[in-house]
Amino acid sequence: GNGIVMLSSLEAEGVSSVLLNNGELIAIESCPVKEEELAPVLGAVDKASIGAITGAVTERLAGHIADSYGRVTKRGKRDIKPSSIILAGSGATINGLTALVSKKTGIETTVSNPFSKIADDIQARFPDVSGVEAAFTTCYGLAMRALEE
Q1: 97-105 and 56-72 helices cross at what angle (nearest 10)?
Q2: Secondary element (H or E) of residue 18
Q3: Residue 1: DSSP 8-state
C-alpha cells in the first residue's frame, strides 16, 4: 500500500517484520518465538489446530508482534507510526490475533490475503487454502517476482 505500513509474518519459527514507506524498506527484524507446541500446527498450516489456539498463547503472540512493532518503529529519537499493520504467515489466521495486536499497538491490523486480487477463484479450486491464505503471502510474492523477471 501507499504510505507507511508494517508487515509482520508470524510463523512457527518466530516473528519477522518489515516497515515499508511507499514500498521502500525502512526497517527489518526477525526474532524467534518460543512456543514449541505451535511448530507442528503452524508449520503444517493445520486449519483446525490453528483455529483451536486461544487464550494465553494468543495473548503472548500478540505481545511478540507488539514488541516487534516497538522495535521497528523506533528510528533514532523519533517514532515512525505506520497507518496499518498487515499480518502474514500461518499464525496470522489465529482467532482474535488481529484485534489483540491492534489493541496493543493502537494501529489498525488486518490479515494478508495475497489471493484477493486474483480473478481466478483459488478457494474453489483449492479448498485447503481457504481460510489460511496469509500462510502463502511469501510464496505468492516470490512467484509474482519470478513472473516479472
Answers
A1: 40
A2: strand 14-21
A3: -
For 84, counting Cβ atoms within 10 Å of its Cβ (0-12 exposed, 13-18 middle, 19+ buried), the class is middle
Neighbours of 2 (CB within 10 A): 8
pLDDT of residue 54: 75
54-73 residue pLDDT tens = 788 888 889 999 999 999 99
Which pLDDT band holds residue 49 (cuts at 50, 70, 90)? confident
Residue type, 85: I
CB atoms within 10 A of CB 25: 9
What are the pLDDT digits (tens) for 7-44?
898 887 788 898 999 988 889 898 888 777 676 666 66
d(CA 27, CA 17): 8
* Alpha helices (runs of H) in 73-136, residue ranges in sequence order: 97-105, 122-125
Beta-bridged to residue 60, according to DSSP, are none
User: Which three cell numbers mark 130?
Assistant: 481457504
How many CB atoms lie under 10 A from the CB of residue 118? 10
